[in-house]
């Protein structure tokens, strides 16, 4: 009887962890920091698949000229910046237009 309860408990634990995010714990703290420093409207964090990995684009919104959008990987490491005065559209030498949009993680 105890073995059945243990097996059922482990099964539930394993199944409930399947939908957990692969994000590094720093993602939540970066998101909270970003919310404090971004524009008061039109800012967002979007998830993409790029170069076979999950990446996040931190779009600060429309409250300043030549602002850049930071691109971070799922380990919360900065990969590069999009936009700005030069209009950069490449990350790791590849056009970010090749990225596949997954979802909006946060917006204001």
Q: Can you walk through the features of this model?
A:
This protein is an alpha+beta fold and 108 residues long. It has helices at 2-17, 26-37; strands at 44-50, 53-59, 68-73, 78-83, 90-91, 94-95, 100-107. The protein has one domain (22-107). Strand 1 and strand 2 form a beta hairpin. The protein is globular and about 30 Å long.
Principal-axes geometry comes out as globular
Helix content: 25-40%
Distance between the termini: 52 Å
> What portion of the residues fall into strands of 2 or more residues?
35-45%
**Total of domains:** 1
Q: What is the string of helix and strand elements?
A: HHEEEEEEE
Low-confidence blocks of residues: 3-20
Largest sheet: 5 strands, antiparallel
Class per helix and strand makeup = alpha+beta
Which strand order does the major sheet show? 4-3-2-1-7
* Helix count from the secondary structure assignment: 2
Question: C-alpha Rg, in Å?
Answer: 18 Å
Mean pLDDT over the full residue set: 83
Number of strands: 7
Element layout with pairings:
Layout (H helix, E strand, L loop, with lengths): L1 H16 L8 H12 L6 E7 L2 E7 L8 E6 L4 E6 L6 E2 L2 E2 L4 E8 L1
Antiparallel strand pairs: 1-2, 1-7, 2-3, 3-4, 5-6
């Amino acid at each position: 009887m105890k073995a059945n309860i243990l097996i059922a408990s482990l099964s539930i634990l394993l199944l409930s962890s399947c939908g957990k995010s692969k994000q590094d714990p720093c993602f939540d703290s970066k998101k909270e920091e970003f919310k404090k420093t971004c524009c008061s409207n039109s800012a967002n964090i979007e998830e993409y698949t790029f170069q076979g990995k999950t990446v996040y684009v931190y779009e600060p919104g429309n409250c300043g000229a030549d602002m850049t959008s930071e691109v971070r990987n799922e380990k919360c490491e900065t990969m590069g910046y999009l936009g700005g005065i030069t209009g950069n559209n490449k990350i790791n030498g590849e056009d970010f237009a090749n990225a596949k949009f997954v979802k909006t993680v946060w917006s204001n």
